Amino acid sequence: SVEVMTAASASSVAVKAGAALAMAAGAGALGVYMYRTTMGGGSAFQIGSSPSPAPGSKGKRKSTAVEALPEGPVVRIFFGSQTGTAEEFAKMLAKEAREQDINASAVDLDCFEGDMLPNSFAIFLVATYGEGDPTDNAKTFHDWLAKASAASLAGCNFAVFGLGNTQYEHYNSEGKFVDNLCEKFGGNRMLQLGLGDDDKNIRGDFDEWMDQLWPALREALGMEQSSQAWLDKGVQYKFSLASFSSEADAKGTTQLRTSNSIDAASMISFNVACNREICTGGDRSCRHVELDIMDENSSYETGDHVAIFADNEKEHVEALAKRLNFDLDMWISMKDSDGMAPFPCPCTVREALTRHLDINAAPRRAMLVALAEMAQSPEDKDRLIKLAMKDNTDKYHEYIIKGTRTLVDILKDLPSVNPPLDKMLEILPRLQPRYYSISSASLTSPRCVHVTAVVVEQECGDGRTFKGVCTWYLKHLAPGNTVRGFLRRTSFKLPQDPKTPVIMVGAGTGLAPLRGMCHHIEERKKTLGEGQTHGTHVLIFGCRRRDHDFLYGDEISQWAKNGTLAKVHLAFSRNPDNMGSKVYVQNKVDDNAMHILSLLDNGGCFYVCGNTIMARDVKKALMQALVFMRRMTGGKAEAYLETLAKEGRYLQDVWSA
Fold first, then answer.
1. CA distance 634 to 263
2. Burial of residue 594, with CB atoms counted within 10 A of its CB: 0-12 exposed, 13-18 middle, 19 or more buried
3. β-strands 537-543, 567-572 pairing
4. Whole-number Å distance between alpha carbons of 60 and 58
5. What is the CA 367 to chain-centroid distance, rounded?
6. Which of 35, 60, 349, 646 is the residue whose CA sits 20 to 30 A from 150?
7. pLDDT for 408-439, tens place per residue?
């Protein structure tokens, strides 16, 4: 499946592709080159890598030649990533830098050492996690930077891009922290802080920041400004593919190390013990899944998270393979010039597309450019390039984002696009784990974590149905199935003293960690000695309708009866007896503000779990109560809640809506 064209037509396509790359974020994960090949005695140009074997062929393929790293000072691109996006951006940036003859490497902040910064060139791509915290792999660096001195960054030329979400209260606080302290402690800022908003178009924000980074970085390095002729070279691929005639041959080769931090996670296995529907009506599905922890050295605490690695749906994998004529049972291995694999290798094509690569992600503009080069139809090629251009953001958003189109959907719409296997496996992003707040208590269920998840299923209006990768996976798990994942600690914890008052506010599946807390409180109450008491515990829970999605309603009723909960306030936003009005949890906070404030006065802790819009409205209701009932005007109410947060008495476990 090698496309051959005349020199003139190839040059035209390459120029268009290069222009699209320049307009679309500097190519993202892909760079571009063109080489001359001779066929049938004539000379022609080909865009892409060296010819691939037929998708279903079995012979072992030779590695493509890889250029040596550029000379000159090393530019370290540090990433602080929780879900993989910052890592993906860092590796894209490093690869593109090398294509501009800049010696760059992506560095996990977990591997940071203080002597890396003086007299250096450093780019930081850092995500903000939770309540304005650094990501897990950036905590050590964060603490180091907070205690740094002027000499720590002497001669350091730096630039920072933050990854955040405006729906969160502490928007991009980690990026701002790194940027401010790098300058404070002697660093030289090459470029103004870039802020990416995942609530809108974080990839577009990053693309725009990259466009400004290149001239700033080249100037700092003393390099001539690029004419961007490098963009007109065609798409360059980093990995070479080898295929094997049998499983035995494949497994006889060395297991390759991977270049992705996902594979360094402490992966453990869970066994599915239970999977049941807990919605009692309506058109939505919510699953209660119980997962036995198989690793005897792993444990969790009430309020922690579980990360789940889902498999892509079999139907989608087979549809992609059929469309591109891939042999799913063929054993393969991929590696770059350093001998690193993009995902665990060797494996079958089926395993790569099922477990390791995200075939349902919204295709990035760089992927559209790569697909454009493989299009045999001029119409398909032109359509993809136009979608990839930055000045066509509205069309991209309408067709890809709003239209919830995946790679498979695009290939159905553009029949002349037929990527060969090696290129397809390289341009697809890695499948990231999904995180869930554990809805069980470690006191009552120490070896089994419970997950509560609404199944994402959206009708697209043109006959397609978009399905959430992980929730659809969870829905179809059967008892006895094995699930891959890991456990992650959080700060969303009950107070140690059982006498401390607790106010819990949650909506929908935001009830999950609060359910775990209620089980914990109930069990802890049983262990209190004679004369000991436990504090006042209040739950405010909201959902749509009592008869549809009152999750764990029987348990909540029981906690109210046995004294685990002193008060339960329910908000059903769409109940038929609401007389047309909608009642939300923030309304219940407002209605019960006097009691809530009295509990906070007595050292109480306030917990909120659910989407960020709800969390913001709950905080607003609480602030209004402080203004009207405690006369905390002029910013005093907000300062009071900030103090509670610093004391660990106002905690949120929230996600973007």
1. 50
2. exposed
3. parallel
4. 7
5. 18
6. 646
7. 999 999 999 999 999 999 999 899 899 999 99
